[in-house]
Design goal:
3-stranded antiparallel sheet; 5 helices; alpha+beta; about 90 residues; elongated; Multidrug-efflux Transporter Regulator, Chain: A, Domain 2
Length: about 90
Amino acid sequence: MGIRTPELLAKIDIPRQKLYYLEQKGFIKPKKTMIGEKEFREYSEEDVKKVEFIWKYLKRGFKYKIAYEKAMEEIANPQLNLIKSEKPA
């Protein structure tokens, strides 16, 4: 079971509109569940990780597509983050 929108917004501190825009663009695909007449989004661990990394790049000023590409590259190659984090001697 994934996490719902309010928990994700609190965890990552991303504005709701930006989160929904990522979904609209197809960068994330939350599962939608009906409870009564309300629809809820549930985000998988993979979606949460994508949002976290994409948001990091958006805050640095990258456009959505580039932020997504950089996030996917970093998720696929976690060692890149270690290399970028190291300061030259």
